[in-house]
Design goal:
This protein is mainly α. The chain is built from 13 helices and two strands; from the N terminus they run ααααααααααββααα. Strands 1-2 form a two-stranded antiparallel ribbon. Strand 1 and strand 2 form a beta hairpin. The termini are far apart. Bound molecules: Phenylacetyl coenzyme A. Phenylacetyl coenzyme A binds next to helix 2, helix 6 and helix 9.
Length: about 325
């Protein structure tokens, strides 16, 4: 941890003791600068992921195969917008402005999840995103429900409820496709082949490569390590794939009696590192879309602000 000279040993020790008793830190509580900074980093990246994460699925709203599927997908994508908004609000409680956070996304300084830089090529991708991407997000976020920062923890509790519905809707698409015609089953298998490894990358670098894990576990921001959560996700997904009659694209996937877990093959970390550097298949397209949407939405923000100012002036008049 980088020590701020204005923070005394006593303050840091009592902060840690408070956390060790499983207390939550609230917005107005004292916290070390580095704790605040790492939370702003993680919560804002999480918020950006929800917002950028609307794009791959949004791409299929007009092409969903039935009215029912369209209504469900629309509701799901709207939920992701809501998650982004709760998370930006949680982040603002740490004393940072939303405009600043959004600017950091747009100028490429702040990351968002690697997973949203892959294209959605077929309807089966929407099934796989719900099943695996929301599934991975739930594994990570259930753990974050116990994170030490109160506003983040409470946002996670609400978000997880909605993510469970998302995961089920994705899995239901996969059931329909895998019980369908042979070309539908093939489409489902192709989507699984393309999304399996990127889903494992969502949990971040391996524990030995992870920069922030050790400090953030001590501060109880993170409650489980990247590798622990990734393993949990693999163990959970294998029987689900078997039920669908689909094959996970990993020849090294094998149940290990001793460990009581599945062993799995090596992740392509070069691909992961390229994606988080901005060189994935859709990085540029995703950011350009967000920047354009933000610019085109300026008149809405201006109008909302003008209306709010007008209302507060009217209120002042009535009070006086
Ligand atoms: N992608 O030291 P660590 C969703 C970065 S929500 C990009 O291990 P940490 C819902 C990391 O930021 C998905 N970058 O970092 C949905 C750091 O870089 P920095 C998002 C990644 O923070 C579903 C560096 O690598 N969920 O999907 C990734 O301890 C469907 C070193 O890594 C969250 O954000 C990655 N996958 O652990 C929406 C959950 N992994 O910042 C729409 C909250 C790592 O130093 C449709 N976040 N990096 O420049 C977390 O739990 C943690 O931040 C981790 C990373 C676990 C992601």
């Amino acid at each position: 941890m980088i020590k701020n000279l204005n923070e005394s040993e006593q303050q840091l020790t009592s902060f840690q003791n408070y956390l060790d008793k499983e207390n939550k830190i609230e917005a107005k509580d004292w916290m070390p600068d580095a704790y605040r900074k790492t939370l702003i980093r993680q919560i804002s990246q999480h918020a950006h992921s929800e917002i950028v994460g609307m794009l791959p699925e949004g791409n299929w709203i007009t092409r969903a195969p039935s009215l029912r599927r369209k209504a469900i997908l629309l509701a799901k994508v709207q939920d992701e917008a809501g998650h982004g908004l709760y998370l930006y609000s949680a982040c603002e409680t740490l004393g940072v402005e939303r405009d600043f956070l959004i600017n950091e996304l747009h100028n490429g300084k702040s990351k968002y999840s690697s997973i949203f830089n892959y294209p959605t090529l077929s309807w089966a991708d929407i099934g796989v995103i719900g099943w695996l991407v929301d599934g991975a997000a739930i594994v990570n976020q259930v753990s974050l429900q116990r994170t030490s920062y109160g506003p983040y923890s409470r946002a996670m509790i609400r978000i997880c409820k909605e993510e469970s519905f998302h995961q089920r809707q994705g899995y239901e698409i996969m059931i329909a496709l895998s019980k369908g015609t042979s070309s539908q089953k093939q489409m489902a298998q192709d989507a699984l082949n393309r999304w399996w490894w990127p889903s494992l990358m969502m949990f971040g670098p391996s524990d030995k490569e992870s920069l922030h894990s050790s400090q953030n576990m001590t501060w109880k921001i993170k409650r489980h390590s990247n590798d622990e959560l990734r393993q949990k996700f693999v163990d959970m997904s294998v029987p689900q794939a078997e039920f669908l009659g689909l094959t996970i694209p990993d020849p090294n996937l094998k149940w290990n009696e001793e460990r009581n877990h599945y062993d799995f093959g090596d992740i392509d970390w070069t691909e992961f590192n390229e994606i988080i550097k901005g060189n994935g298949p859709c990085n540029k397209e995703r950011l350009n879309t967000r920047v354009k949407a933000y610019e085109e939405g300026k008149w809405v923000r201006d109008a909302a602000l003008a209306y709010a100012n007008k209302k507060s002036k009217l209120k002042e008049k009535v009070i006086n």
